[in-house]
Design brief:
The complex is a heterodimer of chains A (about 110) and B (about 110). Chain A is an all-beta fold and about 110 residues long. Helices cover about 0% and strands about 50% of the residues of chain A. Chain A has no helices and eleven strands. Chain A has strands at about 5, 10-15, 20-25, 30-35, 45-50, 55, 65-70, 75-80, 85-95, 100-105, 105-110. The N and C termini of chain A lie far apart (about 35 Å). The model of chain A has no long low-confidence stretch (mean pLDDT about 95). In chain B, strand 9 and strand 10 (about 100) form a beta hairpin. Chain B is an all-beta fold and about 110 residues long. In chain B, strands 2, 4, 5, 9, 10 and 11 form a six-stranded mixed sheet that branches. The chains are: A mainly beta (about 110), B mainly beta (about 110). Chains A and B meet through strand 4, strand 5 and strand 10 of A and strand 4, strand 5, strand 9 and strand 10 of B.
Chain lengths: ~110, ~110
């Protein structure tokens, strides 16, 4: 099993550009999550999907949209990137009935 | 407001020098407490889940404990490969709401 995979690993955007971060898991997990991690702060939840076909806002959803494409894939879209969105983005997943989340390797995004 | 804090922010230990990391939480509707390890440039790696005060979990040189207001990660005779950032996180009753602390950066010097 590859676990949770994320693409790309690194990305540099100019202010106003758009992009989609991709996440996939091969563990047959039900729930999937997008977090951002900034220096000195804990991981903060952007959006999550409790099951295929559902998505919900987390703590910091402004400026982001998500799509749960199928059970395996959960993408995060930045429609108009801003410097404040410079961060490391992590995707995570968990299986129903088990509460710990398993994380991907992250995408380091810089917006100039 | 729900909050998870960790102390110290950074810790340097000599190889073999045991110590503890602290995680304090103020969370309504707490369901459990996670510990994760994060290596530089990688995603967090799950270590433990604790569900009730008095519970303890062990893995190699690590032991996690839980009280009603805080959790400790005890590291016994650490080795350089234990160097990492250790994150704690509180699980709320909604099960999809996890609040992470900022982490403790541990360096173990040979």
């Amino acid at each position: 099993n590859a676990g949770v995979t994320q693409t790309p690993k690194f990305q540099v955007l100019k202010t106003g550009q758009s992009m989609t971060l991709q996440c996939a898991q091969d563990m047959n997990h039900n729930s999937m999550y997008w977090y951002r991690q900034d220096p000195g702060m804990g991981l903060r939840l952007i959006y999550y999907s409790a099951s295929e076909g559902t998505t919900d806002k987390g703590e910091v959803p402004n400026g982001y949209n998500v799509s749960r494409l199928n059970k395996r894939e959960f993408s995060l879209r930045l429609e108009s990137a801003a410097p404040s969105q410079t961060s490391v983005y992590f995707c995570a997943s968990r299986i129903q009935g088990v509460y710990e989340q398993y994380f991907g390797p992250g995408t380091r995004l810089t917006v100039t | 407001e729900d909050q998870v804090t960790q102390s110290p922010e950074a810790l340097r230990l000599q190889e073999g020098e045991s110590s503890s990391l602290n995680c304090s939480y103020t969370v309504s509707g707490l369901r459990g407490l996670f510990w994760y390890r994060q290596d530089p440039g990688k995603g967090p790696e799950f270590l433990f889940t604790l569900y009730s005060a008095g519970e303890e979990k062990e893995k190699e040189r690590l032991k996690a404990t839980l009280t009603k207001k805080e959790s400790f990660l005890h590291i016994t005779a650490p080795k350089p490969e234990d160097s990492a950032t250790y994150l704690c996180a509180a699980l709320k009753t909604s099960y999809d709401k996890v609040i992470f602390g900022p982490g403790t950066s541990l360096s173990v010097i040979p």
